[in-house]
Amino acid sequence: MGTAIDSKAAAWNAEEVKAELLKKYPPKVARKRAKQILINEALENETPEISANVRTIPGIITMRGCTYAGCKGVIMGPTRDIVNLVHGPIGCSFYAWLTRRNQTDAGPDGENYMNYCFSTDMQEQDIIFGGEKKLAAAIQEAYDLFHPRSIAVFATCPVGLIGDDIHTVAAKMKEKLGDCNVYAFSCEGYKGVSQSAGHHIANNQVFRHIVGENDEVKPGKFKINLLGEYNIGGDGFEIDRLFEKCGITCISTFSGNSTYDQFASAHTADLNAVMCHRSINYVADMLETKFGIPWIKVNFIGAAATAKSLRKIAEYFGDKKLIARVEEVIAEEMPAVEAVAAEVRPRTEGKTAMMFVGGSRAHHYKELFNEMGMKTIAAGYEFGHRDDYEGRRVIPDIRVDADSRNIEEIEVEADPTRYQPRKSPKELEALEKAGYQFKYYDGLIPDMDNGTLVIDDLNQYEAEKLVELIKPDIFCAGIKEKFSVQKLGVPMKQLHSYDSGGPYAGFQGAVNFYREIDRLVSSKVWGYLKAPWQRDPQLSASYNY
Amino acid sequence: MLLRHTPAEITERKALAINPAKTCQPIGAMYAALGIHGCLPHSHGSQGCCAYHRSTLTRHYKEPVSASTSSFTEGASVFGGSANMLQAISNIFSVYNPEIIAVHTTCLSETIGDDLPQIKKKAQMEGKIPAGKHVISASTPSYAGSHVTGFSSMVTAMAGMAESTGKKNGKVNIIPGWVEPADMEEIKRLAGLMGVKSIVFPDTSGVLNGPLSGEYKMFPEGGTTVAELKATGDAVGTLALGDWCSGDAARYLDKEHKVPCKILDMPYGLAATDRFIDALRTMAGITVPDEVALERGQLVDLISDMHQYLYQKKVAIFGDPDQLIAMTEFLVSLDMQPIHIVTGTPGKKFEKRIKELTAGLGRPVNVKAKGDMFLLHQWIKQEPVDLLIGNTYGKYIARDEDLPFVRWGFPILDRQGHQYFPTVGYKGGLRLLEKILGELMDRKDRDDPESKFELVL
Description:
Subunit structure (chain A): Tetramer of two alpha and two beta chains. Forms complex with the iron protein (nitrogenase component 2).
Low-confidence stretches of chain A: 1-9
Number of strands of chain B: 14
Largest sheet of chain B: 5 strands, parallel
CATH class of the domain at 67-192 in chain A: Alpha Beta
InterPro entries (chain A): Nase/OxRdtase_comp1 (IPR000510), Nase_comp1_asu (IPR010143), Nase_comp1_CS (IPR000318), Nase_Mo-Fe_asu (IPR005972)
Mean pLDDT of chain A: 95
Protein name (chain B): Nitrogenase molybdenum-iron protein beta chain
Oligomer: heterodimer
Distance between the termini of chain B: 32 Å
Mean pLDDT of chain B: 97
Largest interface: A-B, 90 and 86 residues
Structural class of chain A: alpha/beta
CATH class of the largest domain in chain B: Alpha Beta
Distance between the termini of chain A: 38 Å
Cofactor (chain A): [7Fe-Mo-9S-C-homocitryl] cluster; [8Fe-7S] cluster
Radius of gyration of chain A: 24 Å
Helix content of chain B: 40-55%
Helix content of chain A: 40-55%
Number of helices of chain B: 17
Family (chain A): Belongs to the NifD/NifK/NifE/NifN family.
């Protein structure tokens, strides 16, 4: 085994690490970053406050992307039968073209536009004279070529600046085409401070323009929606497999492997299960207010978390057969998981991980590392808000700044004809008495050990320092961070789009993840970094001519 | 079928681009800037552009790509990005301490009309640029040109650093264009083999194909130094490889510093490499050594050995103009038939040049600048080919149409090694041929009936 890994158990002190991270910054930057770097001291009833969802500092190499990336890339990207048309110069559409590893199964004859990249490819004259006509023509051309059931239009930075009214163009085209739902997203890259704003803009428009369009009652006794699951590397397929096995009907997934009709029928489900709290909690709220569907937080990353989430869903429905079936499924699935966990544990036990991804992902994956006996010593979100760190209890205290105010909040009321509470107040009370939590998320911080680091919007410089100072056994972030971390001799696992492999959700996903992490922390390559003559430069004999 | 909705029938599209064979200018500027030693590329706009460009370059080169951004939010978009840029300049120099910041614009900062030279002046006046450090900039709105022209703009900005002392330094400037780090290395090796003292810029070798050693260097050893860029003004001449990527910078040096230039094709394949070596010989006034003639002879040998398998094979290619021109010439020289050719980069002269190169085929050839891969796929459906050459996005067409496929160009996201193995020069020609023949023969072995399956083909 290589020296690089062996030496990583070195002791470190959180205060010193924080001071070191801040040392090189100009005073103003250091002050700001200090509020986003927290040494965790989560106590029983108290969660420390962190600064989150604040502007990125210009010039500081950030891990974040933009609002458009959140809207088109993350939320709408995995929808297969919607033509996602990007109104703007070519780059934005090009970069979001298949790069999230969204998978889909359209069957032999199903519609699938995910492999296509559509753009109005705006040119200088469109910027000068306006691009509305070109957009309308592009929608028409897409319709004539494919006759899709829906076309979604995305605004990029210059579109907002020149004032193209994409919503009016979309509405006019919807009317003109008749059998194609056309709507638009004002998701210009400069809105908000991170991808998170784009998630919000996407979800709002899906709720406004699609949800509730199909009232048809689908078959199934236990009907749920899975919110905040994007089918990266096939995660959604594994979760669907489990639902099916248990007898749970997934009406819609927002938005992994999703179809237009799934969104349109979402209001017919009886429970919303929320995976990624950050990207979609407000949709769960809106579905409850408008249609009366309660929501719970679930997590299908980690075998224990998956079992817990399935039980939670079964308990909600309270059906004895379902509860028994879920137990059977767990009992069937767990042996394979436990076998692999036992196999890898001698090599993973006691090892350390750092995770800086997404807005819930870093929290979810902690479960998987726990199951391997690995400790998460530093974690944070790229685009989380305070409630993702500290739990939903802080939502009333979150100060709304100018950047958040630009992101629309939809006012929702109970639907006059379709609002229907799924449980009576009495039933809800009974569940809550039994410890059932609706509409709740505790956040990352209470789950992190004392003295670990929780860092919001980590940047490249701090990532490099953290790895140098603490030498974790594995670091998890995105593609931009991958190779700079690995140059330091620490394996790096991408957890946004997964660099290779997956699924990691559910029971089979846990098996995949154990094997993947075992591979990474046990790889021989980290032992090759120094050549023999670099490890031992001393000469023992001389060469005589 | 991955692209099941693509019809064979071609209809005219005026507004809708589908599956582009190009991307936007800033990523080219970012790649070029990484070829300067100690340079931090900076994207002046909202932060998504920078994230996308870094991600795409990282996925292609499998190396860290550091670049900063002005991180515009709505405020900066309304009031202008000057304050963000000034703040960025001081943060960058205090935290990362690069030798040089190479700024490129985005469609956002271009649309609001930020004036970078003006902002740079202000930064200088306010003492935000430390002594001996540099800031250069290129205007790269995404709604004009393509990644190729963005690359060219940043290379021209590099040429803008040239100084002429009036005394020639005996060196030849070589502008290699958007090629792999391994190609830049190969071009330097060839010049070295010939005994020519050269300044190659940009030069990403050592930067984007660096070693794994347990150390992370934000600014690796490689790259053209600022001193070298300044010295380009005193060179005996400039060889620009590929007019799209390198022509403007070469012409600038000619005009501003009287450094005579010769614009050549990128040295892919036999004839283009011959012209490069010959131009190098004439410009430097040297004799071509036997080692170079030997490498050339080996390539000719392989061409003759492979001829029977390549003869009359139809090929579809897509990518960037400089690469496509040289590749078309190479394929024609192998007696292959490049019949569908698409680039996303606009420019009528591309189509004209391809028509000239393929005139000898004696058949019509489909060629389009400012085309897209949807059109290319439709052409292939209309007239099938034996081989497809292009970047990774081509694999969707290759699978649907069951075509042998050689990955070549930018970006290659699903294969590795391209950052280490050159495809320019005679050695690069050997590698291209090996790849092409390998794909064709694998396909034959797969398709032949048992009775026709042979050990020796």
